[in-house]
Design goal:
Blueprint lengths: L11 H9 L6 H7 L3 H4 L4 H7 L3 H11 L1 H6 L6 H35 L5 E3 L4 E2 H35 L5 H24 L1
Antiparallel strand pairs: 1-2
Length: 192
Amino acid sequence: MNDYYDPFGFTKQTMSLLRGLGVPELIPECKKRNISTDILHELTVQELIVLGVNPKKAEELQSTLNIKRKRSNIVITKVEDRVEHFLETIKHGEQQFCLIQALIAYCRLRLVKEQINIFVDPDHCLTASKILPVAVAATLTELEDAKRNLSEVEELILELKMKPKRNSIHKVCIAISVLGLATLVLFKRYII
């Protein structure tokens, strides 16, 4: 069974409740007598004094824990007062529903008439419509740079094929290195 809640005996919940009520001196005695949390509210002032609390503190604790007296303090009003209260509650509810209906109509109007333009960075007032052209231009510039780098690598490879094979291994290594660097730059910019 759960160590924190056990309705038939002393648990950590009972200990926490006693500490919260300001009577930690009751913990050893309640633990020894296996008094559960559900029984605490039924203890009388004399029983609390026997458990080890001074009389004044016992009365305060008993009044704090007495659930029956707290429930009996509920004021029962007249039928006319209840009906008036219900009518007032219905009136306030109707006003709230009217406000909610107006809000929904306003949101619907905004969605229909305006474009949805989200804020990318609210601190700098940057919206998606402002950033999108800049991002597209930057992407196109990077693609042009990559295209230029690849054409240079292609020219280098063609040049190596035309020249004698004496330095061809050295030039092939350079071509592969340049191709690798160009690929690395492309991947870094587009993936990260």
